[in-house]
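We were asked to recover a plausible sequence for a given structure. The inputs and outputs are reproduced exactly as logged, with field labels preserved.

PROBLEM: sequence recovery
POSITIONS: 491
GIVEN STRUCTURE:
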């Protein structure tokens, strides 16, 4: 089930929001925190055809109520008399407000700084039994999978009292999807952006559109997507659409982790056998791999990890998609099988993305030069791959046919450590791999200056298609992802 939190500031909007929420959820949570006037709860819940839960949380518990504790308790007592399906109470509230009628009691335990420990959780269930508790609710910060793990354990373990969780922060979505699979009575969501009960709370639209949460069950296999944000959301949409079309009981699971050494154990427990990484975390995830294929090893970059039983293998797929789209742009309608052969290609970058580009273009016999604001790092790449090093100060005296921008966050301007877009000429082919599928500021400059631009979205869709084939064994046309990418770019 899903519980949509409604946090209105006026009684008029409360009624409208609750009706809208009821059409999309199983339980409506009416948060009284922000109502500036004393609400008539009986009126607000009248006509709502879904169970209603009433809550009113203090700021120290992550809520927004600014009145006194006495005022808050009065609101909760009045709300119970209205006969909602559930009332949320913290431990102190539950000691002073007795069970009333058929209203079920959700006893809430909140820690805004860190997860509760295992012993604390067991003590909490002991307290809850003495307070006529029907459901225990745990809330704590979940910036990473490591913080999600104990919350999932608390919710998924079979007990005589049900438990639900609310993960605060970036990995809250991760907890919601895992909670759905592992038997949480319900998961929480906001009605829409701007109406969240707390920062980063997933919306019901995100759960539906990106993750297809309604189809997740105990048999669903998860594919890990490392990183969260615009591009990762599109990746999840693309993969989940393929899984649905292929009738595979699989879904993407966003993963955030800062302890790679512990990640393997959690992935094994969750039975995750494939991971796709975001464009800027391809080097961070490498320590997870037991084996690296050549381009991943030399580039120190991986955007796909597979575990087929003998350990995690790391693959670098991005260079192939970049080279494919570069060659398509350079060759046009010609039949040249190696259009990069003897082309002067300048790679701008000093990290793993740049190494991957130098590796891939070298494979296709391009004449590679490398430069970056960090001369020392760029020179190390040049030495590693035996290509030409161009000091950044000499960049504007360097002639090239192709420019590949592979330095995330490359500053644009005329200072000595900034890239001046005036360098980009109409005769050049320009490619930027740092913000795919979105256009970077430098790609926009290249368009304005008449350069031949390799479309970031084309590289991105080709990469997704290659990863889909590696994971599912099925060929999927890159163009089939166009509607998801275009919709995101139009927002």
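RECOVERED SEQUENCE:
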């Amino acid at each position: 089930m899903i519980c949509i939190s409604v946090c209105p500031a006026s009684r008029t909007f409360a009624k409208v929001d609750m009706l809208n929420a009821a059409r999309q959820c199983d339980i409506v949570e009416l948060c009284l925190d922000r109502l500036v006037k004393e609400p008539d709860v009986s009126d607000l819940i009248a006509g709502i055809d879904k169970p209603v839960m009433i809550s009113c949380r203090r700021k120290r518990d992550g809520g927004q109520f600014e009145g006194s504790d006495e005022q808050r308790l009065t609101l909760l007592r009045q709300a119970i008399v209205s006969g909602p399906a559930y009332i949320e109470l913290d431990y102190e509230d539950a000691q002073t407000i007795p069970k009333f009628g058929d209203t079920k009691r959700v006893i809430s335990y909140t820690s805004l700084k860190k997860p509760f420990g295992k012993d604390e959780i067991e003590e909490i269930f002991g307290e809850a039994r003495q307070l006529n508790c029907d459901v225990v609710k745990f809330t704590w910060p979940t910036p990473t999978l490591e913080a999600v793990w104990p919350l999932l354990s608390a919710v998924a373990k079979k007990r005589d009292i049900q438990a639900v969780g609310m993960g605060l922060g970036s990995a809250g979505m991760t907890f919601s999807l895992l909670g759905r699979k592992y038997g949480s009575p319900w998961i929480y969501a906001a009605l829409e952006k701007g109406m969240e009960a707390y920062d980063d709370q997933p919306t019901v639209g995100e759960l539906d559109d990106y993750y297809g949460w309604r189809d997740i069950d105990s048999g669903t296999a998860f594919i890990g997507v490392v990183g969260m944000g615009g591009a990762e959301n599109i990746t999840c949409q693309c993969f989940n659409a393929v899984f649905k079309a292929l009738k595979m009981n699989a879904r993407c699971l966003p993963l955030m982790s800062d302890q790679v050494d512990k990640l393997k154990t959690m992935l094994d427990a969750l039975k995750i056998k494939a991971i796709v990484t975001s464009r800027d975390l391809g080097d961070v995830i490498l320590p997870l791999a037991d084996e690296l294929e050549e381009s991943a090893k030399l580039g120190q970059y991986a955007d796909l990890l597979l575990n087929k039983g003998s350990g995690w293998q790391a693959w670098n797929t991005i260079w192939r998609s970049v080279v494919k789209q570069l060659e398509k742009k350079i060759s046009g309608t010609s039949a040249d099988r190696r259009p990069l052969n003897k082309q002067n290609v300048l790679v701008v970058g000093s990290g793993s993305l740049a190494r991957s580009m130098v590796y891939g273009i070298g494979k296709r016999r391009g004449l590679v030069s490398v430069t970056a604001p960090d001369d020392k790092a760029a020179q190390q790449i040049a030495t590693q791959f035996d290509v030409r090093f161009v000091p950044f100060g000499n960049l504007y005296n360097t002639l090239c046919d192709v420019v590949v921008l592979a330095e995330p966050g490359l500053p644009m301007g005329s200072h000595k450590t900034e890239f001046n877009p005036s360098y980009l000429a109409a005769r050049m082919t320009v490619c930027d791999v740092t913000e795919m599928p979105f256009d970077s500021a430098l790609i926009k400059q290249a368009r304005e200056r008449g350069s031949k631009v390799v479309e970031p979205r084309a590289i991105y869709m080709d990469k997704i298609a290659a990863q889909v084939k590696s994971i599912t064994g099925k060929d999927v046309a890159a163009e089939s992802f166009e509607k998801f990418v275009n919709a995101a770019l139009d927002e």
